[in-house]
Design a protein that fits this description.
Structural class: alpha/beta
Distance between the termini: 32 Å
Helix content: 10-25%
Number of strands: 8
Number of domains: 1
Order of helices and strands: HEHEEEHEEEEH
Number of helices: 4
Mean pLDDT: 92
CATH topology: Rossmann fold
CATH architecture: 3-Layer(aba) Sandwich
Shape: globular
CATH class: Alpha Beta
Strand order of the largest sheet: 3-2-1-4-5-6
Bound molecules: guanosine-5'-monophosphate
Low-confidence stretches: none
Length: 168
C-alpha cells in the first residue's frame, strides 16, 4: 500500500507541475491516506479539508451527504484534487464535485485510495485510484465502523457481508 501511495503522489507531482494545486482532504475517513499522499508530492500545494457526513444506515450511505465543515480557502481559479478514502456508490464524490464546481476552480479531479466499482450508483470519473476492491466493508487506516477502528494501522475487512446485520 505504501508503495502505491508513493506512486500516486509522484504521478500527481508530474501532472500538476507549475500549476496551483489545492489538495482537499475529505474528512474524516481520508486523514491517514491524505497525510501519506501529500508527503511524496514534490510540488508546492495548498492543504485544505472539508468534513462531510452521510445519513442512513450505519454502514451504508443513502446519498444524503452533508458538508458540515467547509474549506478555509478560496479555490477559484485553482486546480483542485479531492482526496477520498473510498468511493462506493459515488454519491459523495458527485455531490462534492457539483458543489465545488460552482466556486469556479480551474479544474477538479478525484483521488481515492479505494474504489468499489461494483457498487457504483452514479457514474463518476475517478482520476487517481489506489486500489479497486470487491464489495467488502473495510475499516482501519482512517476508515470507520460507527466511528471506531479509524486508528488501526492497516486496512481490514469487517467480517460480514452486511455490517448492519452483524451489529444490529
Ligand atoms: P459513497 O458516497 O461513494 O457511497 O460513499 C463514500 C463514503 O462511504 C466513504 O467516504 C466512506 O465514508 C463510506 N464507505 C463506503 N464504503 C465503505 C467501506 O467499505 N468502509 C468504510 N469504513 N466506509 C465506507
Amino acid at each position: 500500500m505504501r508503495a502505491r501511495i508513493r506512486e500516486l503522489g509522484r504521478q500527481i507531482s508530474t501532472d500538476y507541475a507549475n500549476r496551483e494545486l489545492v489538495l482537499v482532504g475529505i474528512l474524516k475517513g481520508a486523514y491517514c491516506f491524505y497525510a501519506d499522499l501529500a508527503r511524496p508530492i514534490r510540488i508546492p500545494l495548498w492543504v485544505d479539508f472539508l468534513v462531510v457526513t452521510s445519513y442512513g444506515s450505519k454502514a451504508k450511505t443513502t446519498g444524503k451527504v452533508k458538508m458540515v465543515t467547509d474549506l478555509t480557502e478560496d479555490i477559484g481559479g485553482k486546480d483542485v484534487i479531492l482526496v477520498e478514502d473510498i468511493v462506493d456508490s459515488g454519491l459523495t464524490v458527485e455531490f462534492l464535485t457539483k458543489k465545488l464546481t460552482r466556486r469556479k476552480p480551474k479544474s477538479i479531479k478525484v483521488c481515492t485510495l479505494l474504489s468499489k466499482p461494483d457498487r457504483r450508483k452514479v457514474n463518476v470519473k475517478i482520476d487517481y485510484v489506489g486500489f479497486e476492491i470487491p464489495n467488502h466493508y473495510v475499516v482501519g487506516y482512517g476508515l470507520d465502523y460507527q466511528q471506531q477502528y479509524r486508528n488501526l494501522p492497516y486496512l481490514a475487512v469487517l467480517d460480514a457481508a452486511d455490517p448492519d446485520e452483524l451489529f444490529g
